[in-house]
Amino acid sequence: MSLPPTGRTAEDLLTEIAKLKGNDLPVRGGQVTAYVYDTGRAGIGEAAARAYAEMLEVNCLDPTAFPSVVEMERQVVGAVADLLGGGHGIFTSGGTESIMLAVKAARDAAGRSRPTLVLPVTAHPAFHKAAHYLGIEVVPVPVDLATYKVRASDVEAAMDADTIMVVASAPSYPQGVIDPIEEVAAVAARAGVPCHVDACVGGWLLPWLREAGAAVPPFDLSVPGVTSLSCDLHKFGYAPKGASVVLFADPAMRRRAYFASAAWPGYTIINATVQSSRSAGPLGGAWATLQALGRQGYVELGRSALEATARLREGITAIPGLRVLGEPEASLVAFAGDGIDVFVLADEARARGWFLQPQLSYAGIPANLHITVTGATMSGVEAMLKVIAESAGAARLRGPVVLPDGLVELVAGLDLDALDDAAFAELAASVDVDLRPGAGQPEMATVNAVLDALPAPAREAVLVRFLSVIYGS
């Protein structure tokens, strides 16, 4: 891209944006079962978008310059704290940043020279990212392969004098099950170690499911031993992207998450988040969404999601060759295939206009497809089940992906740093995955099959190159 010689009109720009979005997955309607969260209600998105635009140019860097930021954040964080057992919070850009701040606070409070982070293998990769950035070693703990939940005894065995935090999920994203929060928090408390509950998915969902009649165990800051919790509002809060909250039971721990610097002659630097300058647009959008839906709106959305999840589980179980993994306790469902390649099934569903999220096998958990059930899902659940059944039948006829002999070993043994992006793209093309600009959306079954056959470090190296190629120079 080069800059145009003269400025373009807003109408012209919006026309081009619409063209650029032509191949995007739809963000409304429930046919995309990951990444986007849709209430299915008219007017909610519009209210959020207008508030987002109103706050777009307000800078959260200096709350003394823009007191609206302070008041909005107090209200949003206060609503989250009121629902999730109290605490003292920070509004962040998403779950990864909330988790990053919680880990930073625990690291700084512990003052260990070789800090470690104990977490289940089902914990979100944001913890690995935080550990990578903050110089912390991850100690992974296996989960029970019948329930997909971590055992408190395994967490206790993994802790030592260098442990700065233990993690449990409510729920874990892959299978939608809730770790035994009370038990994990208890063993952490006995060792004097902070316990973080990752409720990025469930924080603004589980309380409403409970009100709708679901059996939801205690999981928030009201549980003894839970010292921090992350909750995303751009998931089941249905706010525009860029909205999350991290809560700390102790205000002193919240202060540990902050960053201040006076070692320069410029303006005062004090940041509550990883970012410095940041738009208040996401804050405005989150505030407006909470206000527009209200308590009753969230209760109704929770009831709808609960009903849709039950119907989806029932329907998937009835399809020959498919099985739901575990006993989902939130509106997240994962299913594996017996005699059906789930990666091929995902491509078949994509060809029919539906996106089902592939998840690779790991730590004894089989490859599977993931569905996030939102407020908009109930109206389309029968259509979704019909597509899954048709796609399963088509995948059974096609059979599993057959990789060329030696391909996995070749990829595993490659020095990817020695390949430029063009050479990597040629390698991808050799298995019919065309990554060149304008080539369109490739079928992903082969890519996922290769990744699934590789160990985690090799998967990560391939994914980095994949991203580098599709973005280009």
Automatic annotation (TrEMBL):
Pfam families per UniProt: Pyridoxal_deC (PF00282)
InterPro entries, per the entry: GrpII_AminoAcid_Decarb (IPR050477), PyrdxlP-dep_de-COase (IPR002129), PyrdxlP-dep_Trfase (IPR015424), PyrdxlP-dep_Trfase_major (IPR015421), PyrdxlP-dep_Trfase_small (IPR015422)
Gene Ontology MF term list: aromatic-L-amino-acid decarboxylase activity; pyridoxal phosphate binding; transaminase activity
Entry keyword set: Aminotransferase, Lyase, Pyridoxal phosphate, Transferase
The keyword Transferase appears for this protein: yes
GO BP, sorted A to Z: carboxylic acid metabolic process
Bilayer-spanning residue ranges: none
Cofactor(s) it depends on: pyridoxal 5'-phosphate
Positions of modified residues (N6-(pyridoxal phosphate)lysine): K235
Presence of the UniProt keyword Ion transport in the record: no
PANTHER family referenced in this protein's UniProt entry, alphabetically: PTHR42735, SPHINGOSINE-1-PHOSPHATE LYASE 1 (PTHR42735:SF6)
Family: Belongs to the group II decarboxylase family. Sphingosine-1-phosphate lyase subfamily.
Protein name in UniProt: Aspartate aminotransferase family protein
